[in-house]
Write a structure and sequence with these properties.
By secondary structure, the chain is of the alpha+beta class. The protein is built from 16 helices and 12 strands. The strands form 4 sheets. The protein has a 5-stranded mixed beta sheet with strand order 1-2-8-5-3. The two termini are 32 Å apart. The structure holds protoporphyrin IX containing FE. Belongs to the cytochrome P450 family. Pfam families: p450 (PF00067).
Length: 420
């Protein structure tokens, strides 16, 4: 049986000017390690050429520059969009109405209220439920011997946690899962614009209805928090409520899924690390951080320069699109010792997978708990895991990882299933 999931050919860094980083196929079908290395060492502030109607944009690849942009929301705003797709097509329609694409005081006000739902204490019941459901999903899937880890396990964990948070009824969750996949990437090759827009609209309509219900009858969930009057001197507008529900759903589902799937892929490809995890030589906490660095599910973030400025000798004009590539920063050799090595015991792991600064991921604690629950579960249940068929990558310039990962598993003879 194969010991690596389909390896992707390395892209030649000498062909830099011909590589379109906005093209989902470039990321899905190629290994960009050498390209990122060249950019970090030779062109850390690189002007990506325009392409047809799409304008050019800046590409930042070093850890220090990526962190600096994340820290500086005043000079690098998210208010016109925070991913390439929206920035290259005229801006985000939710700008100023959704946390990730709002800056300044309005961002702080909404974030302060939402944070109430994301403290370790508030999340405790959600995380208990994540642990129970992860255990039971793993038991069912691994117990069969063969499974698609992506569809049978990972697809169900983050969406259930977010639906718990938002108060989405169990009967609607399958529908919501299908829509989130369609809205962000594509599990089945290149997404069409019509597919993604229609899925996004359906999600927005769904949450508009849920918000109406919660206004009439508040419950103990995030939608009720968003329709409450906790926002200083005002209530959130209906659009702000709906866009923030949307952002929690899309921000928290696929990223976390891709990390879990990537964790299992990496454990199969690195038997030494799998042995270290099983023996307890590495902690679940450090393993989780390395999984986040290694998988880097969100490849980049985007910003717009609010003034003319000089960066590493390059002149950036007000209004220019500036992209920061976590995919590269997380492999920066000036920050990480042996960055191309998957090392679950890595210490001082300053990965930027959850970004940095004002927009630092709101769901980081939850995502870490979910990935940790998967690592604990496979460690307790599996003796060995192997690839059992072709995997499938997501097609996206923003998300990275596998949407399909068939594996076969030999259970640990000492493992005793719990009744669930
Ligand atoms: C491995 C999983 C995850 C990754 C890699 C991830 C990554 C990120 C990144 C890179 C940002 C910053 C975007 C920017 O600055 O433009 C972000 C922000 C955000 N994330 Fe996550 N995320 C994950 C899980 C979650 C979860 C589970 C939730 C919620 C349930 C969530 C909700 C959010 C929200 C609401 C923001 C916007 C925060 C703000 O603008 O203040 N994320 N995330």
């Amino acid at each position: 049986m194969a010991t690596t999931a389909a390896a992707r050919p390395l892209l030649d860094p000498d062909a830099l000017e011909t590589i379109d980083l906005a093209d989902p196929g470039v990321h899905a079908e190629h290994d960009l390690t050498a390209v990122w290395h060249r950019l970090r060492t030779e062109q850390p502030v690189y002007r990506h050429p325009e392409n047809g109607d799409a304008p050019g944009f800046w590409v930042l690849s070093r850890h220090a520059d990526v962190s600096a942009v994340y820290r500086d929301s005043a000079r690098f705003t998210s208010e016109r969009g925070n991913v390439l797709d929206t920035l290259l097509t005229g801006g985000d329609s939710a700008a100023g109405r959704m946390l990730a694409v709002t800056d300044g005081a309005p961002h702080r006000d909404v974030r302060t209220v939402l944070l109430k739902a994301f403290t370790p204490r508030a999340l405790a019941p959600v995380i208990d439920s994540v642990r129970r459901s992860t255990q039971s999903l793993l038991q069912d899937a691994l117990g069969r011997g063969d499974c698609d880890f992506a569809a049978d396990v990972a697809a169900n964990i983050p969406i259930a946690a977010i639906c718990d948070l938002l108060g989405v009824p169990a009967s609607d969750r399958g529908h919501i899962l299908g829509l989130t996949s369609a809205a962000l990437g594509s599990d089945h090759g290149m997404p069409t614009e019509a597919d993604t827009w229609s899925a996004k609209n359906e999600i927005l309509l769904y949450f508009a209805e849920l918000a109406r219900d919660r206004r009439e009858k508040p419950l103990d969930d995030v939608v009720s928090l968003l329709v409450s009057d906790d926002f200083g001197d005002r209530q959130l507008h209906r659009d702000e409520v709906v866009f923030n529900c949307y952002s929690l759903l899309l921000g928290g589902d696929e990223t976390t899924r891709l990390s879990m799937i990537g964790a299992v892929q990496a454990l199969i490809e690195h038997p030494g690390q799998w042995a270290a995890l099983r023996s307890g030589a590495v902690s679940i906490e450090s393993a989780t951080e390395e999984v986040l660095r290694w998988t880097t599910p969100a490849l980049h973030s985007g910003r717009t320069a609010t003034e003319d400025l000089l960066l590493e000798g390059e002149f950036i004009e007000e209004g220019d699109v500036v992209t920061v590539w976590t995919a590269s920063a997380n492999r920066d050799e000036t920050v990480f010792e042996r960055p191309e090595v998957f090392d679950l015991g890595r210490t001082g792991n300053r990965h930027l997978s959850f970004a940095y600064g004002a927009h630092f991921c709101l769901g980081a604690y939850l995502a870490r708990a979910e990935i940790g629950a998967v690592l604990e579960g496979v460690r307790a249940m599996a003796r060995s895991m192997e690839f059992a068929g072709p995997s499938q990558r997501v097609y996206s310039n923003f998300l990275s990882g596998l949407s399909r990962l068939p594996i076969s598993v030999t259970l640990d003879p000492g493992y005793r299933p719990s009744a669930s």
